[in-house]
Amino acid sequence: MKKQNLTGMEITSLMELLSSEDGMTRQNARKSLVVLGKPAVPFLVQTLQNSKVDHVRWEAAKALAAIGDKGDASSIPTLVNALEVRDSASRPVFWLNGREPNFYSLPVPDGEDGKLWSIRYGRGAIRLLTVPPLFARSAAELLLPREVVEKDSRQ
Fold first, then answer.
1. Residues 47, 58 contacting (CB under 8 angstroms)
2. Are 26 and 85 within one domain?
3. What domain range includes position 117?
């Protein structure tokens, strides 16, 4: 796909494909928008802020994150509000999704206490209250206190 051949109408068509029920169609549309880069940013920002459909907002957030600093700084405030928290099975449990930054409570279901959760698309300061300060870029790098490892090995 050549960037210079895309018109606003074609960008709009790609944006509509983000709402497809077919995951591959959504993925291909998102990848095309990422290749397009900066011209797609305003469309993606508007979709992330205004769409009522979770998977459409999610695709827009992923595209904006992939475009990153190759795009334009206008997407940064929108991405800050796109923070997502996933449980140990990588299921989304919370998405800031345009809400005002504030304090939010996330219930921890039975069986999820003490497991590795992740934060995606978070930019800027993220403050977690009543959460053990055990952070790493991946599970392989996570250093746990000895008493936690010993407790888990007994279960």
1. no
2. no
3. 81-155
